[in-house]
Each structure stands twice: as structure tokens, then as C-alpha cells.
Design brief:
The protein is mainly alpha-helical and 225 residues long. The chain has one domain. The protein is built from 8 helices and no strands. It is globular and about 55 Å long. The two termini are 21 Å apart.
Length: 225
Amino acid sequence: MKEVKEAKMSKKELTRRYLLFVISLFISALGVAITKKGELGVSPISSVANALSMQFSFLTLGNWLIIWNCVLILGQILLMKRKFQLIQLLQIPLSLLFGYFTDFGMWLMSLFEIDGYIIRIIFVIIGTLVLGFGISLSVIANVVMNSGEAFVKALADSLHKNFGNLKVFFDVSCVVTAVILSLVFFNMKIEGTREGTIVAALLTGIVVKFYLKFLNKPLDKLLTR
């Protein structure tokens, strides 16, 4: 991901970019909620919070996503130490927004009744398309990384390893952790991490690349004009 030099931006452009990033959070959260409604699993990075929300339902999925993101932010601080940039603390309020947006999306999805495996698969695919759109907008906004990617970047910088390889490892680790939690919580049954998680893992990156191919240049021009 390219890095934007905020000091060289006009206030108008910076405001536009942060506004686009907030919009991207809302759309991404809606994608998570739609996928969750399919009850076939969620995206890898949300899978741990999903497993926890199913067992400890006194907190919502959005609440658990906030906690999970804060854990990832703490991980960045521990990894980067003095190299951690204070601007990255913006991830905290943005994580709060993402959590609240997710719960709002869950409320919207509660208005729909779905039945049948095919419909559930369709919801997973639609959710993945929406999530991918949200992620692509956050890439175009190019201001603050989301906590998951920022954690992987901190890990890659600390270990001097390839970001892409560690991203795959991180996603797999999230899914494995979610599966282990499920086995512990639900008497050796896997709940909340199913084929929908695999679909989301395989398709999200492809969907993001597709959106970026058509949206990157026109939206970037709109932001910088």
C-alpha cells in the first residue's frame, strides 16, 4: 500500500480522504454483517470475534470486534515500541466506529429472514462483494491502515519478512484460532467458522483487485482536485 504524506496535503483533500475511509468502514462492516447473516462463517479476520460473540453473547459481535482490534493495536505497539507512530492511535476510534457500524449492520440484517442453503451461500457471496468494496475504498483513501493489516505490517517490519506471506499466515492463524475456540466452547463442534469463511478468504482479495482496477484512478483524482 502506498503511503500518503499528510503534511503535503491540503486540509480539504485530507478531510475527503478521512471521510472516504469512514465510509469504507461502514461498507466493510455491512459486508461482515451480511456474511454473518448467511450463518456459514465470516471473513478470517473477523472469525475470532465471531466465535467469542457466539459463546459470550452478553457482548455483541461489534463489541468483540472492537476488543479484537484493540488487541491487534496493542500488538503493534509491543512489536514496534519506539517506532510506533502516534498517528496510528487513530485506529482506536476508527475501530470503535467499525464495531458500532457492524452492530448497526447486524440490526439491518435482522429485518430479513433467510431459509435454505443456496440463499445462505448467496448472502455470503454478497457480503464478500460488499466487504471487498469497502476494503478497496479504504485502500484508495490511503490514510490509516486497518488494525489487521497494520499488525501484519508491524510483524513483517519486525521480522524482516514479506508482508504478503505473513498476511496469509495471519489469516490462517485467525481461522485456526476460531476453530479451536469453537471446539472448546461447543463440545468439540465447529460453529461459526464454515465454508463461508473459506469463500471470503478466497474471494475478498480478488474482489478488491477488481474494484481497484476501475475505481482507483477516478476516485484518487476526485480526492486530489
